[in-house]
Every structure is written in structure tokens, then in C-alpha cells.
Amino acid sequence: MITAYVLIIAKSGAEKKVVEELGLYKEIEDAEILYGEYDILAKIKVKEISDLNEFLLSKVRRIDGVEKTSTLISAK
User: Fold this and answer.
1) At residue 76, does pLDDT exceed 90?
2) How far apart are CA 65 and CA 68, in angstroms?
3) CB 17 within 8 A of CB 4
């Protein structure tokens, strides 16, 4: 299994909507609103690195309100 953390910058006021939509996907273990440079932190679990790529490109980055993402892949 691959665990990744995605830092998301959302459009102002869209943070709650983005977190709600992220929660609809089985790959998302947790998603929380943050204060600071990034607006949302999402924890993702997938089987393969190619699954992560597909999930990020076809799902996360297409959510209305998501402006930018930065992905951190766990070393464990």
C-alpha cells in the first residue's frame, strides 16, 4: 500500500465543500481544513503509485475549488 499526504490550496470559501467531496472517495482516509499556507490536508491510501497518479489527476485536481496540490509520499 502507498500512503500519501496531499496539501491543497483551495479557492477562498470553498474549503468545506472540497473536504466534503474528498470524503466521498474510498482512497481518502482523512481530510482536514488547515490554517496557514495550505487550506486542506488529505491522507490517501492506494495500492500502487500508478493508482495515486490516476487518483490525483482524475479526481482530486478536478474538484471544483481546488487550485493547487502538493503531494508527499510516505517512506514507510
Assistant:
1) no
2) 9
3) no
Distances (CA, A) of 1 to 18, 30, 43, 63, 75: 25, 16, 13, 24, 11
Name the domain count of the chain.
1
Question: What is the mean pLDDT of the segment spanning 60-65?
Answer: 97
Structural domain boundaries enclosing 57: 2-73
- Local confidence band at 11 (pLDDT 50, 70, 90 cut-offs): very high
Query: Quick check: 39 and 7 in contact, CB under 8 A?
Result: no
d(CA 35, CA 45) in angstroms, rounded, equals 24
CATH number of the CATH domain containing 50: 3.30.70.920
